[in-house]
Amino acid sequence: MAPSLKSQKEDFVSNLTGGTISEINLVTAVAPVTYILFAAFQSRLHFFHPYGPVQLVADFLLNAVAILLSTTLYSKFPLLLNLLILLPAIILCVGITPAHQKAKRLAKPKHDASSIVTKTTSEPLLPKKPFVTVYRGSMMVITCAAILAVDFKIFPRRFAKVENWGTSLMDLGVGSFVFSSGLVSARQVLKDHFAKKAASSLLARMKGAMRSSLPLLVLGFVRLAMVKGTGYAEHVTEYGVHWNFFFTLGFLPPLLALLQSIPTGGLNPTALYTLLSLGVGLVYQVVLESTGLQAYVLIGDRSKFGLLGMNKEGISSFAGYLAIFLSGMATGMYVLPSATAATTAAATTTTTTNPRNRLLKNLLIWSTTWICLFATTSEYWGLNVTPSRRLANLPYFLWVTAFNTVQLTAFYLIERFFFDGARESAPGGNYYAFAVPRVLHAVNRNGLAVFLVANLLTGLVNVVVNTLEVGRMGAVGVLVAYLGVVVAVAVGLDWRDVSVKL
């Protein structure tokens, strides 16, 4: 890449100030809105069963292209796009009765709370949950779309990563990726908890953590070598001279292994990891403001302190990302278990309570809690502290956590509304496959591998194409083709029943 073009591309993503949280919420709302349309087609018409080429194209347009359009062509009109997607869903819901409801009217089965508990006792303790897959898959698609779209002029600069203070779509995406990783990391802790296994030794936990970290660290070094070796445009103030996002992900498991040595004090896993996340976030914020670390990270001399100074952003922000990862784990503790497991674990649950309502209650309570905590620190409602992705400070951590818990709540409400009655009547008896778009399932199944492919393709496109000179429709064409390749890799791996472990 020519030096002048490299500097132009670096300037294109530098010194940005972001946009408003309300606009970000509208743009990202396309993910739950497209799930509503998918659910309407599936529950009313069984459109995606059986699944063939036509269904795959419709799936791709709905769960990949629509998300891309919300951040590009419709970036100024996200509400209009959401309404256009929602309109056919409303028509279907008003005009057609779901098949499972028709069957209910004919059979008129009797349901009570005891029968619900009885039916769910055969569930696995940690089942695959449609709304979790849709949430993680949608997050991965919008992340993959943004990492290339940001290099084109059609992608608004207010959506790109902020230089110092403020909020943007891509700032949210980075934190959401970490939160989502924490969410699924709760699975192993829950397995040990339900099996009533004694806590592993620190040495055993560190060995397991290093096995998880090693591939990520290798990817980090590979990306570093590629960026430095090809002269690829890089935004140094994002993470530092050598640090990148793979290093942040790679160092999280060992730190988590150390934190798991802290005595639980009889706390349940959700409370424990919530307190840990808040503790890390609060202590880090105090350190930022009381030691001069904040000023050094933002305006300090990078040549000071050797490698530490050269990578001051990535090293400092790691504490904030650890807090986000822990809050994701705390959320996973009540989201991942089956209704049976959650009911068994809660001593206050009575046989007259629908166990699935417990999850909805928890999601609503925790969504409200995280929103209120964010409000207490925000510049408008509380302590007048502005979020900073570069620092990963306390308001940034609380914003990311609040957003993701609200998104999970939205996806769960959609699943409950459209599919709850189809648990026994889903085609082939596979409720999960019936309620999850195949594209999102495939992307989620090999999430890290898909993310790696997206990064490689992003680099390839930038080397081959001068993205700054591509017009609107040309950019959309390139981005749709790019997402098509990413989705094709994910669906191809899933079709061959391959899970890539990185």
Automatic annotation (TrEMBL):
Membrane-spanning ranges: 20-41, 53-74, 80-100, 134-155, 167-187, 208-227, 239-259, 271-299, 319-347, 359-376, 396-414, 448-468, 474-493
Membrane topology: Multi-pass membrane protein
InterPro entries per UniProt: PIGW/GWT1
EC number(s) on file: 2.3.-.-
Chief location of this protein within or outside the cell: endoplasmic reticulum
Pathway linked to the protein: Glycolipid biosynthesis; glycosylphosphatidylinositol-anchor biosynthesis
Compartments reported by the entry: Endoplasmic reticulum membrane
Enzyme class: transferase
Keyword entries, A-Z: Acyltransferase, Endoplasmic reticulum, GPI-anchor biosynthesis, Membrane, Transferase, Transmembrane, Transmembrane helix
Pfam families: GWT1
Family assignment from sequence similarity: Belongs to the PIGW family.
Function: Probable acetyltransferase, which acetylates the inositol ring of phosphatidylinositol during biosynthesis of GPI-anchor.
Protein name: GPI-anchored wall transfer protein
Naturally occurring in which organism (per UniProt): Discina gigas
